[in-house]
Structures are given as structure tokens and as C-alpha cells.
Amino acid sequence: MDSQPAANGISALLRTVRGGRVPLPPRPKGQLVWLHLPQDTPTDAVAALRLALEDFSVLITQVAVAKPSALHMELPSGRRGVIDQFIAHWQPDILLWGAPENGLAVVRRAAKASMKLLFADLSEQGLSPSFRGRHLTEFLQYFPHILLGKTADLGWFKKHGLKEEQVVRCKPLAEVAAPLPENESLLRRVSGALGPRPIWCAAGVSRGEIGAVLAAHRHAVKAVPNLLLIIAPRAAADVIGAKVKAEGWRMGAACPDEVPDPKAEILLAQNTDNQPTWMRLATVSYMGGTLYGPEAADPFGAVAVGSAVLCGPVQAPFAHRYARLHEAGALAFAETNGALPARLVAALAPDRSAELAMQGWAVGSEGAETVQIVAREICALLEGEAV
């Protein structure tokens, strides 16, 4: 669908919730999907939604947007004329209302414009407590399908006219453990050189914690013969390398340009550039920075490549991700540096590492599952199919 601005350019202006007028960017050609999302939607989930809907242009609105962009902006105010101008400019083919706010004014105008409509409780917060009575009943009647979390009270929605056959169950739109780019040729070369050796990775470590990491490795090789440690430091690789050699380890290089020494006890990378590849090789990945800081490595990097997560108590800025993994029993936790060796050995056990990796993947893929359900429902409505 081509952009068709309204007469006198009125559709190129929008009165925002702050009362000012700002020009709207041009509407992209083709079908356009409008997603109104909860305020706390994770940025990686937004990116995953865009990717899943890559055949369409995707316009995202939220109640407040810190850094608006061409296709990500604040929801227009509840005034009918402002909403009509917004719709006339963007001409969305479908609106997904995924936030808890009272959206009756917007949905009314969208329905009047013959837009397809879908409601999803993407944050599992339900709808605003002030949104009730006949207005809520009217709101729900505009949607042929409604996506609800498994904990949502279906009876409450039925009281407002919702029919059970309209409901599709899905989990909240959580953060997604998206795989980072890997070096496939490096992966093949290194795995070929090392063979079936057991491997663990210290990902994003600092020089301040290398002593604890080496102590854990020294303890673990007694229980797991031929165990290899790959170190991907966040900085100070030369200092870390000197420490490794001073302790008498046989050290090799972990780099894209060399075949690693198959007899090395420790491989040292110069930085974290190929960290996803090193973690994919590893049964267990220790998250650097979690013992002494200053900040923890992202555990979803290990989850995405199927490596079990081992960590200490320092978990910012990813405390919410660590909390989700901990709640699901999907990480090995070392309370102190002294506990790290025993926690590592326990996590390296084949059944335990497999359990941690599987539980981690279940947590990291929750958001991806919801993204796929949302994308499927949107595509089905646009194609006029019953789901």
C-alpha cells in the first residue's frame, strides 16, 4: 500500500500527548503492522518482533518513548481528531494492542477505519484496573482473537463478553536469548583440532578474577582429566597470559588465524570478539565479572549457544536475566570465589550440564515462542484465515 497523505498535508502532523505538533516521517510502501507495546517491553523482544514480521513495515508505539525514531514513537493522544490523523497518515493494515492501558478510543477509530485488530496481554499485567464495565466490554468485542497469558483469569474476561474460542494462550513477551554472530570456520577448525575434549570457558573475565578462575581449573582437572579452559578476557590479555604462564600451565592461543595447540591446558584469546564461538565449544561457561565486578557478562550469550551458565553473586547489569535463570534452576551459582571450584566440577557432570543448558534454553526461548505466536496471529489475520 503506497503512502497517500491527506489533503493540505494534515496527515503529516500529529498532536502528541504533550500537546505539541511534530511532523510524521513518510509512510513506507507495502503492508504496515502497528504494534502498541507495554512500556517495559525488552528491546531485544522488540527487535525479534520486527525480524519475525520482516515481510511488513512495523510501526511501534508506546505511552512514552525516550528516543523516538521513524517507526517507533509515542501513542497519539486520546482525542479523536489526533487519532484519526495518525491513522490516516500511517494507514496500518492491522493494530495489535499489547499494553494494559485503556485503548478504547484508539481501537474505536481503528475499527472505523476498517483496520484488522488483535489484542495480546504481552506483559501479563492484565488491563488497567480503571478499565472496566461497558467500556471494557465494548473494547473486547472489537477483537476476533485475544492472546492471554496462562495465568490470566479467563472467567473475568468472559464476564465482559469474551468467548473461549477467541482465546490463544501465550507467555509474556520476555527477553530473548538471541545468538550472537559466530565464526563458523573458526568453530570447525578449533573443534577439529581439539576433538572430544571436555571444555569450559571463562567469558569476559577481568585480570582481578583470573586467580579464582585458575584455581577452579586446577581443582577441576583432577576430576575431569584432559579438561581444557578457554579464556576470553574483556581486557588485559597480556597480564592474564603472564599469570597463566607463571602458574605453570601449558598455554596456547585461541585466535581465528591459528590452529590451537591440541595439548594445551589453557587457550587464551586476546579479547571477547569470538566469545560466542568459544562458549559454543564449552560445556560450561563462567560469566566473567560475577565474582568481583565491575559488571557481569550477559548470561543469555551462553544460553543462546547451549552452554551451561556458571556465575558468582555480582549480576548487574543483567540481574533480571540471572534471576529468571535462577528461578528456573538454570544456572550453577558460586556464592564466593572459594565455592567456584566445587560448583564448576558439579556443573561439568554430563547430566548436570545438559540439564542446566536445557533449562537455560527454555528460559531464553520463552520470549521467542511468544514472538512466533504473535507473528503467526498477525499473518493469519492479514491473510484472512482462521487460526
Ends apart, CA distance between termini: 25 Å
At the fourth level of CATH, the homologous superfamily of the largest domain is: Glycogen Phosphorylase B
Rg is 26 Å
> Helices and strands, in N-to-C order?
EEEHEEHEHEHEHEHEHEHEEHEHEHEHHH
Strand order of the largest sheet: 5-4-3-6-7-8-9
CATH fold descriptor of the largest domain: Rossmann fold
Can you tell me the overall shape? Answer: elongated
Secondary structural class: alpha/beta
CATH A-level architecture of the largest domain: 3-Layer(aba) Sandwich
* Approximate strand percentage: 15-25%
How would you characterize the largest beta sheet?
A: 7 strands, parallel
CATH classification, class level of the largest domain: Alpha Beta
Can you tell me the residue ranges where pLDDT is under 50 for at least 5 consecutive residues?
Answer: 1-20
- Work out the helix count: 14
The domain count comes to 2
Residue share in helix:
25-40%
Count of distinct strands: 16
